[in-house]
Design brief:
Layout (H helix, E strand, L loop, with lengths): L3 E3 L12 H10 L5 H17 L4 H16 L2 H12 L9 H5 L6 H14 L2 E3 L8 H8 L4 H10 L1 H13 L5 H11 L14 H4 L39
Antiparallel strand pairs: 1-2
Helix pairs in contact: 1-2, 1-7, 2-3, 3-10, 8-10, 9-10
Length: about 240
């Protein structure tokens, strides 16, 4: 079910204890077609066996899975598209929240894809590296300390999506809450920033104005973290 093809599953070929949970959460964020629905019983069994989430959080995830499995398929698929494909606040492409449509998004995509490749992981044709299920697949292959640190690096983005999903009353908020739990970060439903109008979204940012206005800082403001690793650093779980 992964969007990434593996060369390795981490040091010694073993997955760390929360790896199955990360993969289940990533899969739950995928399009809820018949194939995904067929895997739901197995996914919930993996979640329970992994023991990485609290009983309360796992109960929320199981409620989401029950809705996906039992509700009308068209209703579930339509709700997914409405939530994740129409609006930047709930986009599962993380660089939408960092770079928007600015020129920096392309290089950031390349950097992240190279991070995966150094770990022996390769994207499927047409998949984007900043897609959250893909990111979670990568994180699941890392040793526990690195996995938690990586989740911590994207926690502010996950929390922003969490707040937007809470505002819309979506059961998918439980998945974001679970990711924040795994990162050791509090799940706080913050008010999402207003999205630009259609006309504003097409405005090209100034060439020289500190940084672009789409998700980046101006001079003196904090710069959002980019989920990449330093070139030359040893890749965890890399394989030839």
């Amino acid at each position: 079910m992964s969007a990434i093809e593996h060369g390795s599953t981490g040091a010694g070929g073993r997955l760390h204890p929360s790896a199955a949970t990360l993969r289940v959460l990533g899969a739950l964020l995928g399009y809820p077609d018949a194939r995904l629905r067929g895997y739901l019983p197995e996914m919930m069994a993996l979640l329970a066996g992994d023991g990485a989430l609290s009983d309360a959080r796992r109960g929320e995830i199981e409620a989401l899975a029950h809705w996906i499995a039992r509700a009308d398929a068209i209703e579930v698929e339509t709700a997914y598209v409405e939530i994740f494909d129409r609006g930047r606040a709930t986009s599962l492409h993380l660089f939408e929240h960092v770079h928007g449509d600015s020129r920096d998004r392309g290089p950031a995509m390349i950097d992240l894809a190279q991070t995966y490749e150094r770990a022996g992981l390769y994207l499927e044709l047409g998949e984007l590296p900043d897609y959250l299920p893909v990111v979670l697949e990568f994180v699941s292959t890392q040793p526990p300390r690195e996995a938690k640190a990586f989740l911590g690096e994207i926690a502010h983005l996950v929390n922003a999506i969490f707040g937007a999903l809470i505002q819309r009353g979506s059961p998918y908020a439980s998945v974001m809450g679970a990711l924040l739990d795994l990162a050791g970060e509090p799940a706080r439903a913050v008010e999402p920033s207003p999205e630009p109008t259609l006309d504003e979204s097409w405005v090209e940012p100034p060439v020289f104005d500190g940084c672009s206005t789409q998700g980046q800082a101006k001079p003196g403001d904090p710069q959002p973290i980019r989920i990449v690793r330093k070139a030359g650093s040893p890749a965890q779980g890399a394989s030839s």
